[in-house]
Amino acid sequence: MSNKFIGQSIKRVEDKRFITGKGRYTDDIVLPGMLHAHFVRSPYAHARVVSIDMTEAKAMPGVIAIYTGDDVADINGVPCGWQVNFRNGETMREPKHPMLIPTGSTAKHAGDAVAIVIAETKAIATDAAESVMVEWDELPAVANPAEALKPGAPKVHEQFPDNTAFDWSLGNPIEEVDAAMAAAAHVTTLEFVNQRVVPNAMEPRAYIGAYDEMADKYTLYTSTQNPHLIRLLMCAFVLGIPEHKVRVVGPDVGGGFGSKIYHYTEEALVTWASKQIGQPVKWTSDRSEAFLLDAHGRDHVTKAEMGFDADGNVMGLRIKTVANMGAYLSTFAPAVPTYLHGTLLQGLYVTPKINIDMTCVFTHTVAVDAYRGAGRPEATYLLERLMDLAALEMGMDPAELRFKNFIPKFDGVNEPGYQTQVALQYDSGDYAPVLERGLEMLGYNDFRAAQQEAAKTNKLLGVGFSTYVEACGIAPSAVVGALGARAGLYESAQVRVQPTGKVSVFTGSHSHGQGHETTFVQVVADKLGIPMEDVELVHGDSDTVAFGMGTYGSRSLAVGGSAIMKSIDKVLEKGAKIAAHKLECAEGDLTYDEGKWTVKGTDKSIGFGDVALTAYVPHVYPAGLEPGLDFSSFYDPANFTYPFGCHIAVVEVDKETGKTTLKRMIAVDDVGNVINPMIVDGQIHGGLAQGIGQAMFEGTIYDENAQLTNGTYMDYCMPRADDLPLFETDRRTTPCPHNPLGVKGAGEAGAIGSTPAVVNAVIDALWSGGHQVKDILMPMTPERVWRAMNN
Amino acid sequence: MLADGGKALSGGHSLIPTMKLRLNAPDVLVDVGRLPELKGISVDGSELVIGAGVTHGAIAASDLVKKHLPMFATGASQIGDPSVRNRGTIGGSIAHADPSADWPAMIIAADATIVMQGPSGTRKVKAEQFFTGLFSTALHENELITQIRVPLHDGAKMTYQKFSQPASRYAIVGCAVVKSADGKLRVAFSGVSEAPFRDKKAEEQLSSGQPAEAAAGMSILSDHYASEEYRKHLANVYLNRALAAVA
Predict the structure, then answer these.
(1) Smallest Cα–Cα separation from A162: which of A238, A224, A90, A111?
(2) In this structure, are B123 and B172 located in the same domain?
(3) Which of A293, A313, A343 is the last residue of a domain?
(4) For a tag on chain A, would you pick the N or C end, based on fewer CB atoms within 10 A?
(5) Distance from CA of B231 to the nearest CA of A (A)
(6) Which of B83, B98, B224, B232 has the most A C-beta neighbours within 10 Å, making it the best mutation to test the interface with A?
(7) Are residues A55 and A106 both part of a single domain?
(8) Chain B residue numbers touching A659 (CB-CB < 8 A)
(9) Whether this model's pTM surpasses 0.90
(10) What value of ipTM does the predicted structure carry?
(11) Residues A156-212: pLDDT tens digits?
């Protein structure tokens, strides 16, 4: 193999169409005879449908059909893809999420749909939906997960009066942890909220269902992160259609951040309706619906305690968390607070005893599911807030406290991986260097001097640290199967060498901003020793790509890329047989480099293109060898991958107003080997912005009726460029020992490490001004910071 | 037309969002955005005349404004973001009368006059009297704002100090202070109360050499981003910052 492209910051080949407005998103697709849908939705978080009067709406010109819950009673609800049972073995409670709420039933969150109105234009459908008269009987509602557990709280599902979906624990027996905490010289206790945030992909969800009567085949165009998974869920669990009679296409998709992993009711409804009517049906979410209905993220209420001995060594960790699941269990929802969160709660510290106690509850809110980082940001937030606070409380340096407690270096090759107290075995790690590099970039000693000077002025300075480890590249199928996953989490790839030596690569990964069309092609071109222009990447269409589990959990290169590597190996293996035959030598006498096979020690060689042509025009050809040069592979990873890093925030706090300015954001990440440094930097930058957004700006606000009161961009604050400093990033490289590219994944790291660093920095600033506060609720609005200084 | 369920549309930055949320559904929209009579910035005698249809961006970039009313240029440059500034107009903002909009504090402090035209002719109202309550003004339904006329304030110092709501970038507190050449102060606030207002009490306290209490006796807004107590505190902080800027 050559190394022309791997490790190079090749400009993204997909950007030409994106930045010139030539991308083709679902809403750009116009099919002949296409109709438009709009939903009649519950204005209440909890209300019984007393009656639905469609008389006026049905009579409006241009209205084609209106369906209600009674029309779709035979369709199953959208399924949950992960089962986590109660710790006593009782089965997870899994309420049906009906396609449309029928008369007599109750809507369980604001925006729950009662009817789909289909019309010739979106405007007509919207007007008609407004004319559908629904009589509602409003019922009490609860949005806060801790409130939902209290006696007498409004019930989300009558059959589950305690509002509990399941409870779960992990780690050492609680008695052992209690004993460790009792013996600790110091215990840092922190009660906090990891608030609910809205994913806010730039492209709202959009779907087109189209039924072809002649072929008896459906096509669903969908703004999704995993077309094949949507096909599987919709065919096998919801609509009961044979899988080969459905084509699912995820064209250009403008961001997902997790929210487009899941199968939503609207996808199934437009698909179903297209057959009822015999015309394609499109639905595009507006931004208000996106705020209300895209699965949200985070939403934990936690009490965490960390015990230390007199020297600052961690002795134990005890955690009690209530996690909000929303009204229904979304596709991956049960895994997020459990196996993607609890298993990361050792972080990168030697911790003798850990116990995690999770209670996952229903509320009258839209579902909570994986959102960039999915459980690992929550775990990192908890640990890193404890670490910095413990250092302040014990009068220790927060960096020194971490160095003291880091798990020692292990490469997973010469030493085994590191077995944690909470089920996972980290693959490779070398934690001290990322913090050392971060401190060097910060200029730590100078900073503390500047902080002391600032404390005399109106602007306090603070620094916050966060060192994280996360789990990417999900995941070994047998492992996740044992943990309740109802799917495997491998990936497929096909490498099809065309007769002229040009290469089409079909991947089950799905790019919706990650730059796969560049990164994956860099890998293929280098491994085959051919120009990048000779390789195309095909993804996002279930009729052309054999199968796929899609893109989330920073898995695409580690899992999807590994599947491609397997197929490339098969291509080169067969190519060598053909080359040896043509060159009249033994395969073992050949080397492959720069796109040609050469007989060792001679100048006799044959190029990749000639071998490809021979494979398809097999006139002079090895006996018994099949023609063609086209290989498919499935790759099931041996383990998760475990990137890690150090994020450091420096803030300035205006004492008069409480306004926080993020002055510096330093990120030193170790994501394993890097194929395209520019794309990895971009992923880190985007993740940092998102993590900073949670710390400083973002967060849902529900009122006492469980209504989202800040579901617009006028009220819900997204981080903007002028809110952020120029990011200072660097990398360390500890290769993944168990996949062929040595890559770990970079999509979520920025969002995982940054949030606690920013909050820690504000707390540090306040302590420097004499305000010894333990916590400030996120987002740290100026008023919250001001109150922390003036309570 | 305007009296009969119609609405005038210029930059659309106040009206269109309400229509998208289906809170407003006028039968007729009349695009006044290209009327030449509403455009242009000029000096007329002792006044700077800004057409109601001039965008915030054009005001921020105007050399005439920078020369005679620098507060208007820097204030305009803090409205929303570039796309808002390139579409939204001063007349539209004033007519909409969002309590947190930036223009009201500035035009009140600068003692501007709003010129309105209706079927029965032209009317003028001082900015100080124009804003009558939450989203309500002295403008009649059948009238259109045509001009904002502002005294030139030669030799005066002026400033607009703003604490932004982070999402919308409207003013949680917007404090405009004009200090005339003879030292007289005019103080006005946006964002603090249900309507923008001239803070005469603060002016009086300051003119008698006392420390001023901002927004004394006013009802104070409260929302997710700023409670009544915090907003009142910010009004004082921003009054002091504004006074420091014109000192």
Answers:
(1) A90
(2) no
(3) A293
(4) C
(5) 9
(6) B224
(7) yes
(8) 163
(9) yes
(10) 0.96
(11) 999 999 999 999 999 999 999 999 999 999 999 999 999 999 999 999 999 999 999
